[in-house]
């Protein structure tokens, strides 16, 4: 009997009756198929890749990390079980079985679905209808050439990109493994620890954060008007990588871009929403309702420093040319480069520091307060060359253009994201896609707050799936310079 997870099942039906859940049973036959690590490797690899994205796998890795080094990888040696809860024969709700966690590893006695073709295993699945690994890797979608964001692999015949030339590049190719050499390139920059004066900290339990996995094609892939809508078969889900909507001709769509989070103070948001809607919203970084009991092991404690805390750090450089130093200073304090574009002067630009950025934490306004550099000539030969006032030096836009290509258009995209006021009057509407209207967020009932924070409904209802009679909606993630950065609140049960 193949017992599977029940979390996606509705406990109760709309009329209040107990929900139903089906598991597959079968009688084992005498037939034996050997899984051949070589001949069946495609099926094995696809199975592992699909399991790598599972919630089970994430939890196993996380539990491993928490339990300390001795037992961190126990799940790789033996099967790990999870309790399955459902209505019991006695009428209550509780543990009725255990299921093997989907770790991507197979142990003797594991039950999986197998599709055979000419005596070879073509497909392995944990359920008849199961997640599948998407097509078109990130690497394929990043493109190639001098502007590609793929990492530089240092070597004799390669000019490093500017970023690697400043911060260093690791040779991860292992091409010369065992030969006692590698082609890494050391960075020129070292960061010291950032310190504050005495502060009073607050302990919180952070709302759950999954690992970022770019599975949601709707947000992570470029969406173009010319993506084919016709000819998509029923069941084709546009948000899946490799969907029929994911091609332009034979070419997979590019990634939509690099991920950033809007600056939006979660405490100010909670105050504003509470006042507007009459109620009390807890800041979106805190675990509330059913999330606070942390069944899934995703809630973690965190210590917050108060707003306005000043952290001071020292950054040391060695053997940087002047242009590289300019770009490093601009990376630390982007106001130095934002001045170059229209409207870029005088904005409150902030970067992100620390964890839980998706929950709105860590907006920090950097300032370069002192630059103390000298030339090699000064150090070894004495005398004074031309001195530059680095603290206020102008950014050499033309030189940088020549080195890295036209970067002005990127600044125009970046400015609204780094600007603390970039969202204008939408600043208090930043949230993961909610599963209910905003009024639920300020409700006293934890169940309502749960509903508000149920983001998966949005992703289920807006995945562009082709159905027999209709196609589910699909929403592109609005870009930073779009006039309207909002998405509709979409739930399963229309409010
Ligand atoms: Zn590089």
Write the layout of secondary structure elements.
Elements: H1 41-52, H2 55-66, H3 74-77, E1 81-87, E2 93-100, E3 113-117, E4 120-125, H4 138-141, H5 162-167, E5 189-191, E6 202-206, H6 217-220, E7 247-248, E8 251-252, H7 266-277, E9 300-304, E10 315-317, H8 322-332, H9 335-338, E11 351-352, E12 363-364, H10 376-381, H11 397-404, H12 408-418, H13 446-452, H14 456-461
Antiparallel strand pairs: 1-2, 3-4, 5-10, 6-9, 7-8, 11-12
Bound molecules: zinc ion (ZN).
Zinc ion is lined by residues 151-152, 160-161, 163-164, 169.
The total beta strand count reads: 12
State the separation between the terminal residues, measured CA to CA. 39 Å
Average pLDDT rating: 84
What level of helicity do the residues show? 10-25%
What Rg do the Cα atoms give? 27 Å
Spatial order of strands in the largest sheet: 1-2
The set of bound ligands, ions and cofactors reads:
zinc ion
Q: Which consecutive residue ranges, at least 5 long each, have pLDDT under 50?
A: none
Question: Your description of this structure?
Answer:
By secondary structure, the protein is an alpha+beta fold. The protein has 3 domains: 1-133, no CATH class; 137-144 and 207-296 and 433-495, no CATH class; 315-428, no CATH class. Helices cover 22% and strands 10% of the residues. The chain contains 14 helices and 12 strands. It has a two-stranded antiparallel sheet with strand order 1-2. It is globular. The relative contact order is 0.10. Zinc ion binds next to helix 5.
